[in-house]
Structure prediction request, 65 residues.
Amino acid sequence: MDSRFKREVMLEHYSKPINRGLIDRTDYIKVNTRNSSCVDNINVMVKIEDNIIKDIRFDGEACAI
Prediction:
């Protein structure tokens, strides 16, 4: 993949994130991916029905690549 294109994709996702924001629901699996060696602290919520991901949400802080 072209490095310029990668940068454009990353900046687009940074400025307009999709599925950002956690919700208060018990039918989602919630996992925290805190990294002790840097600032990364991401929460991910997934709703699975019949082995199919129906929704996924996230929030947190992370280093820029």
User: Anything to note?
Assistant: The mean pLDDT is 90. The helical segments are 3-15. The first helix runs from residue 3 to 15.
